[in-house]
Please model this.
Amino acid sequence: MLLIGQSWQQIGPEGGYFKEFTFHPSNSSILYAGSDDGGGIWKTTNNGINWSLLTSNFPNMTGWSIIIDPNTPDILYACDVYGRYGLLKSIDGGLNWYQKITGLNTAYDKMVSDLVIKTSDTLFISTGEASTTTPPRPGNGIFKSFNGGDTWTPAGLQGVTIPCIDKNIFGTIFAGTELNGLKYSNDNGANWMLHPDVSSTSVIHEIDVKDSVIVIGTSTGVYLSTNWGINFINLGLSGDFNFDISIHKTTPNIELYCSTFSGLQFYSSVTSTWSIVSNPLLNNQLIMGILSNGADVYLGAFSNSPIYKSSDGGISWNRTSSSPITTELTDIYIDPANPNRIISCLLGTYNIGGGYNKECIYETSNGGGTWLRKGPNAHGLCLAANPLNSNQLFLGTFSQGLFKTDNSFSTYTNLINGNMAIGDIAVSNSDTNVIIISEVDLDSWQASIKRSTDGGSNFSNVTALLANRVLFNSNNNDTVYAATNNGVYLSIDNGVTWNSWQLAGLNILSLAYNSNILYAGTDNGTFYKIENSIATNISGNWQTPLELKSIFTMNNELFVGFNGAEKDTTNNLHGSIWRTSDNGNNWENITNQMTSTNIYGNNIITSDGNELYVGTYGGGIFKSNGLIVDVIENKVPTAISLYPNPANNCVTLNSKNGIITSIQLLNNLGQNVSNSVRRKHMLSTKVIIDISALPSGVYIVLTQTNNKITTANKMYKQ
Model:
């Protein structure tokens, strides 16, 4: 029984335009992140390994600022300076949100930039963003509430833009203004005074408070107070644009991080100087949001880049998982010897000013938990590996040619330089020195298929074909196929000469080979099998003209993926993955549970035959959680026996090799139904399961013992 693609989880690599981060006050594993481009509020409970969206009921919510009630951490506030929702409040840790805008009557009132909590009932909000933004969001001063945000009244500075607000431990409220200096109030906003130490010509972007230390990020420099805000000194960085600032440590020395146009800056009171945090991962990144809890540092970058995390003071950075992404992922490689090692190839993160940033290779060694940036700064198009050496990889790029690495992109060599686009790479299984690539010269727009016989050191042109895919016949490497805009071409001499073969006149985008059958997908969604040189249309009932970009075969299963970069206006389909178990007679859409339907690229692939991985346009990588179990009726005794079988109300599991520590039950759809049963005598060699609540049918019982022996049994419920 083969069950795959029933459910999906997003595992990265991810990105997003994140400006705001907030730690849970008593649990540092919990972190909230706010996206400034309408991506909403996100939460992680495991230090950034996985993220979940909290504000799906508020589309295009902008998480400008997130504040947690320190006395009741389940109470959260989220500020939307764009004015779509004004202010949201949650009383259950972000599971549900409610608008709190009564008394915020004008559009400027609802441009809420920040919030400060004096008590659980006494709140203050600031409104507006610096007018350097387009369109400007000027705001309308300070508002206060004495009932937990249910109603709001003006609290001074009306008509003034206030990008940020905070307080010291004595209750003094500090308001950072646009070109009106630093204001403060000791009487709940009845009166406001100008702080003399901070330039009145400053645009104040951020205030961070920790104990007696207060730091202010402004257009005229970073200001520091070590006496609760009584006095401030200018630490420099004047003339730079200080987006966000975070206090890393206050004792024994003061350490700060500041995000600027110039990159991520670090300050230490030991040297009293600022220095750029130099790391290839952060090169050419416009850092927008940053937060430190003294151990870990999180940051978010502009241009739809990801959330990064550092646990060593910024020396090294990892990309966190399952945050929103608008990155075009073009290829995936999964190490067949280690399914937890995944290398993703990206066209790059989209630049808000147009085009894509050169950011293409990310690698994970823990199945998508964290991602490490590697390789050249390039626009990635395709990946291929030496079948005999998974550390030797080839990278095809847009405009920078072909790269090779022998150590998983720790170092790399540019094999083909110049303004070249490499569309696909194929490495022979029988002779890994033979490599065939498809190439387009971006200066002359001349397409060609090139061939190397020395592992990529030298290439020669073999034909002027424009090939979307190149594929070796797995049974005979002398046979090579090329998917072109005029059908499938064939070479029977290891790629030296080529001839038109099948499906002439059709634009072929994808190829796959299995069991003497070649499969081909077209730009209009039709799907063919070619067997014994006869092409047969086995298209399913998807009825869509979307591009069929990817094909994968496994055992008796066949999967096809449609490009979601183009929208089918007929049925509003944005891409999908379909499966057939009977060679195309019947098809099933298996992507209904995916949170992103922008399926894109040559990205369906298995790791060890157990799971599917799908690359998307703007959704990262999805991994199928549908468990693959091929259970054969056991003819010999197993490590764990099951009786009676068929069963009615109860079934007994008896272990002959260790204590039973784990039991899972799956129905015939691969869904986990373990919560529907009751177990007796767990952590024993004999476990009785009450299955009376289960409907009749066939189930898979997965058991594991304390010595890590796993057994799968087929159970019949009467």
User: Anything to note?
Assistant: The mean pLDDT is 80. Residues 235 and 272 are 8 Å apart (CA to CA). The first strand starts at residue 8 and ends at 12. The radius of gyration is 29 Å.
